[in-house]
Amino acid sequence: MIIIESKRKKLENILKKYPGALIVDVTSKATDGLVKLSPFYPHGNIPVPFSEGYAATCVEGIWQGLKVFENEGIDISMFLNDTMKDIKRTVRKHGRVLGHWNQGLCRRALSI
Question: For residue 10, what are the domain limits?
């Protein structure tokens, strides 16, 4: 059985609730090989959905890059972020989230 708990919870409380549990960190801050399970991990060459010819370095880059805000559209530069840092696009800076672009990307329309 896999149980997901917040990293903010105290380890002692998690172990009290789930005695004998194996605790693993799969966040971008993990210090072992399981960091590769983080959506921020730069695996490289991940296809962007509905967008032939486009690829990103990490899953989170696709998620953030295709996010559409009330004051700003998509940002394909997010596809290239391989640092596992500075990848979040927030409502504070860009306005309310309207959703994610799911119509595919066209190089001609984007003038690339």
Answer: 1-37
109, part of any domain: no
Q: For residues 29 and 40, what is the distance between their CA atoms, to the nearest angstrom?
A: 10
Residues 54 and 91 in one domain: yes
Residue 71 Cα to chain centre, angstroms: 21
Query: Does any domain span residue 23?
Result: yes
Reading the chain (112 residues) residue by residue, the pLDDT tens digits are 899 999 899 999 999 999 999 999 999 999 999 999 999 999 999 999 999 999 999 999 999 999 999 999 999 999 999 999 999 999 999 999 999 999 888 754 454 4
pTM for the structure as a whole: 0.82
* Token digits of residue 83: 């640092």
